[in-house]
Amino acid sequence: MDSRSRILKTVKGEIPDRVPVCLFIHDEGNFLKQVIPDLDLDNPKECKQRLIALQRGYGVDLFIRLLHGIFPNWIVYGGVNTEQQTENWEVKTKETRSAYSVLLQTEIHTPDGNLDQEFTVSESSEAPGTYWYACTKKPIKKPEDLDILIKYEPPMLVSFPDHLKSIVPKVKEHVGNDGIVSVWVPGAAFNHASLLIELNEIYGLFLIDFPFYEKLLHYCIQRTFPFLKALAASGIDMFCMGGNVPGGFLGAENYEMYVLPFEKKYIDNVKRLGVMTLYHNCGEIMALAESYKKLETDIVEPFAPPPLGDGNLVEAKRISDGRYTIVGNVDQVNVLKKGTLDDVRRVTKETVEVGKQGGRFILQTADYLEYGTPVDHVKAFVETGLKYGSY
């Protein structure tokens, strides 16, 4: 059975020949930059080609997750549209540079008032070539700001679909039957809203001002849909969407009442486009394992074990009852990066033997491989997963 068929069969709830064994590696920086020091980060296509070649060399089933060079920064990392101007949307940006970061302070002038935000690009001092992108001062502070955004923000560039078609089909062709190609999208709904309004505001907003909250999340769904539609048309296999911001600490009752309806609508939109969905919560998750069945997403990941999260794979398998595929959940920090080879082999064996019971399980690390992860540990993880993953 080829890797693509193995992954797709698993996601559908069927039993393949063995558990798919995958690696979560960013398509820029981090582990990729560690093992390929001459990686040209200004050439996203080269980064993807070398990522695919690297994973092929490890003998894994390819689960490629695109991000680098796909979207404009504002839609996926936060803030408003700063790449376009109109007569009613004037963008003024001040740039400040320091040793490891660039700060972009932007004012947006419109006929109905102004918006302001700060966006930061930082290079890790401990992992050269690894960059972090974030809207560090959010543009929406009050309902009137949202009204301005809804009325005046320029839409997705008309050239974006062609941009995708110059990347995604080539990556899929390069991957072939060795796996699937996914992309990190700007969402799901609550995560995307957190890119526009401060966290300390959104966590209380659904209780304090539900009409404002509802309007914000509906706009986030509407705002991202043209990008999702263009991605679907490019032939992508799966959307990876963030669900970590509305984590288990909210509790199932709050999640199901105030978050799930919007996440479900977001996922339903994707399903209508004919694309598979992955919902990612890398923090507290167990309180929501039951609720996630109502999302009707294809995959939930990663049920990260303590201390990274509160994941319990035995319980997650029991609660999910085959309603969604689980991807995970070997600790990439305390086991793969900081543990011993014996730790890697032991934890990987335990994980795959629990996960494969009943199917709907893909072996992977709980999150992306970090800079400084020993290559021998990655190889041991793969070898152990392949050895004990057979059905």
Task: Explain what this protein looks like in three dimensions.
The structure is a single chain. The chain is α/β, with parallel strands linked by helices and 391 residues long. It folds into 2 domains: 302 residues, TIM Barrel (Alpha-Beta Barrel); 61 residues. The chain is 41% helix and 19% strand. It is built from 15 helices and 11 strands. A 7-stranded parallel β-sheet has the order 1-6-7-8-9-10-11. Helix 9 crosses helix 10, helix 10 runs parallel beside helix 11 and helix 14 packs parallel to helix 15. The radius of gyration is 21 Å and the shape is globular.
Features:
4-stranded antiparallel beta sheet, TIM Barrel, 15 helices, 19% strand, 7-stranded parallel beta sheet, alpha/beta, 2 domains, single chain, 391 residues
Write the layout of secondary structure elements.
Layout: H1 3-11, H2 30-35, H3 44-58, E1 62-66, H4 73-77, E2 90-97, E3 101-110, E4 113-123, E5 131-137, H5 143-152, H6 160-165, H7 168-175, E6 179-184, H8 189-193, H9 199-208, H10 210-233, E7 238-242, H11 252-272, E8 276-281, E9 299-302, H12 313-320, E10 325-330, H13 332-337, H14 341-355, E11 361-365, H15 375-388
Parallel strand pairs: 1-6, 6-7, 7-8, 8-9, 9-10, 10-11
Antiparallel strand pairs: 2-3, 3-4, 4-5
Helix pairs in contact: 9-10, 10-11, 14-15
Mean pLDDT: 97
Q: Give the termini distance in whole angstroms.
A: 13 Å
CATH class of the largest domain: Alpha Beta
Strand content: 15-25%
**Can you give the helix content as a percent range?**
40-55%
Count of DSSP strands: 11
Question: How would you sum up the major sheet?
Answer: 7 strands, parallel
